[in-house]
Design goal:
about 200 residues, 4-stranded antiparallel beta sheet
Length: about 200
């Protein structure tokens, strides 16, 4: 697999108050298709619909047959759709159809992150002294990098990106088949989510 793209450590235009960071709560199921599911798809869908605490997620099915793919804990609904679609299409060799998504019951905002990073965000907010910076970077595949309590904004951004890239590499190593299809779509680059003070 290719190395992760290089990044810029330019100072961002906006710095947000750390009190704006929040974790998306319980999700609700949204069904997008009236396709009759085959038995293996129904089994996968039952598991999918039971994971209402896993943030944004998507469930794709093959148009004919019994193939399906799901993905959980994404940063946004769009990210969940992109990554799950890419993996499903690649694994099954045909264009898959969106069957359902999980989206937060409460409206997520620009500063919302999935529950999987609750501990990281809580630590960052609690351990960052007044005047210092928290930087968070994310990736379409749901990986996150966080740096906190930095007095230099450029160092905070650089470290958050490096941590995100390391998490992406770890994800690639643990999920070779998924990584192959996501990398082909260019879904492994980390981007700055935000800087908080």
């Amino acid at each position: 697999m290719n190395d992760i793209a290089t990044f810029s450590t330019e100072v961002p235009n906006e710095i947000f108050d750390k009190s704006q960071l929040n974790i998306v709560g319980r999700s609700k199921l949204v069904v997008h298709s009236n396709k009759k599911l085959a038995a293996p798809q129904r089994k996968g869908f039952e598991e999918f619909r039971s994971r209402l605490d896993d943030g944004f997620a998507a469930f794709y099915v093959t148009p004919g047959g019994s193939g399906w793919t799901s993905n959980f804990g994404m940063i946004s609904e769009d990210d969940a759709k992109k990554t799950t679609s890419a993996f499903c299409d690649g694994m099954h060799g045909k264009r898959c159809v969106l069957y359902a998504t999980l989206v937060p019951e409460e409206v997520a905002n620009r500063h919302s992150l999935p529950q999987a990073v609750t501990g990281i965000v809580k630590d960052a907010v609690e351990k960052t002294q007044s005047g210092n910076f928290i930087a968070i970077s994310t990736n379409v595949s749901g990986r996150v990098g966080t740096s906190f309590n930095y007095d230099n904004i450029q160092d905070a951004v650089k470290d958050a990106i490096v941590q995100c890239e390391n998490n992406v590499r770890e994800y690639q190593a643990e999920n070779i088949s998924v990584a192959y299809f996501l990398e082909r779509k260019g879904y492994f680059e980390c981007e700055l989510f935000g800087v908080y003070q």
